[in-house]
């Protein structure tokens, strides 16, 4: 099998809840995805008066909107909060003001599909114990120069709940990510802390709500920066607390992330992300 993980890498993943795999993807393939993401952004970014802002700090005002709740089976554009001036005008062309694209590029766009489904990824998923990996959501995160916002500390299980827990993040550095331009930070071993919140649909299915399971915050100390060169894959256990900083630098920090679940686990029907018209597929082309 292509690119099996070593025993030391697997032990590191189990110990820390994350694993950094440098040079996993050739830089040229990252640049191809980058071009495609910018192309989709140019094509699909709505005008400012219809813009939906993404806020990664809990229940957000856009959560009620169909634009967000229907994005699990679509390719939609979410803007940075700081992309607008006081009069509500965009400070730059729309495609340079996006926070992210989400959440089904891996199924709806051929370039994203090919990037997301390779023998190497299938091997990694099998090695970490995913018997039936299913690619649930994809996000292309622009973390634009100067306006790229912080992503608050969270776990992915909070948002994509299966029983038993099974979600794993496959995060790719499309640009070099450093502490200056907003790299990931993660809490080593934090995946052993019971998950503190669940975000789910309300009873009417019109908005998300947060169920707090433990009000104590995650430790503020101890997170480590995961600086990553273009082409690096970072695996993130679903219960691992992680965040990313704001980007005040002049260099964008593009990243692509896939969240996969195990088909053996039960995906709860009140998760926000639903794809009634789009069957889930694994890492095989
Ligand atoms: O890339 C980022 O800034 C955050 C990504 C993240 O939190 C995730 O993929 O779960």
Structural notes for this entry:
- The chain has helices spanning 7-16, 27-44, 66-69, 105-108, 110-116, 119-127; strands spanning 18-21, 75-79, 98-103, 133-141, 151-154, 162-163, 168-173, 184-186, 197-201, 208-212, 224-226, 233-237, 242-244, 255-262, 266-267.
- It is globular and about 55 Å long.
- Helices cover 18% and strands 25% of the residues.
- It binds 2-oxoglutaric acid.
- 2-oxoglutaric acid binds at residues 141, 143, 151, 156, 169, 171, 184, 242, 244, 255, 257.
Quick rundown:
The chain has 285 residues and is of the alpha+beta class. It has helices at residues 7-16, 27-44, 66-69, 105-108, 110-116, 119-127; strands at 18-21, 75-79, 98-103, 133-141, 151-154, 162-163, 168-173, 184-186, 197-201, 208-212, 224-226, 233-237, 242-244, 255-262, 266-267. The chain has a single domain (7-267), classed as Jelly Rolls.
């Amino acid at each position: 099998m292509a690119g099996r993980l070593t025993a030391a890498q697997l032990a590191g993943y189990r110990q820390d809840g994350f694993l950094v795999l440098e040079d996993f993807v050739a830089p040229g393939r990252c640049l191809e995805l980058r071009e495609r993401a910018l192309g989709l952004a140019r094509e699909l970014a709505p005008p400012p008066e219809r813009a939906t802002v993404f806020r990664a700090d809990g229940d957000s005002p856009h959560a009620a909107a169909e634009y967000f709740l229907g994005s699990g089976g679509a390719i939609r554009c979410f803007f940075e909060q700081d992309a607008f001036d006081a009069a509500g005008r965009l400070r730059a062309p729309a495609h340079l003001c996006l926070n992210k694209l989400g959440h089904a590029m891996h199924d709806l766009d051929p370039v994203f599909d090919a990037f997301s489904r390779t023998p190497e990824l299938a091997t990694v998923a099998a090695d970490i114990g995913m018997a039936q990996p299913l690619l649930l959501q994809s996000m292309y995160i622009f973390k634009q120069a100067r306006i790229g916002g912080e992503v608050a500390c969270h776990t992915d299980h909070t948002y994509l709940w299966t029983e038993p827990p099974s979600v794993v993040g496959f995060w790719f550095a499309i640009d070099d990510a450093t502490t200056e331009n907003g790299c990931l930070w993660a809490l080593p071993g934090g995946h052993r802390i019971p998950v503190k919140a669940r975000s789910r649909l309300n009873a009417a299915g019109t908005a998300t709500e947060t169920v707090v399971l433990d009000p104590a915050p995650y430790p503020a100390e101890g997170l480590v920066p995961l600086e990553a060169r273009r082409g690096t894959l970072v695996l993130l256990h679903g219960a691992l607390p992680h965040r990313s900083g704001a980007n005040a630098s002049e260099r964008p920090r593009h990243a692509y992330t896939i969240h996969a679940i195990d088909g053996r686990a039960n995906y709860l029907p009140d998760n926000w992300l639903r794809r009634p018209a789009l069957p889930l597929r694994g890492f095989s082309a």
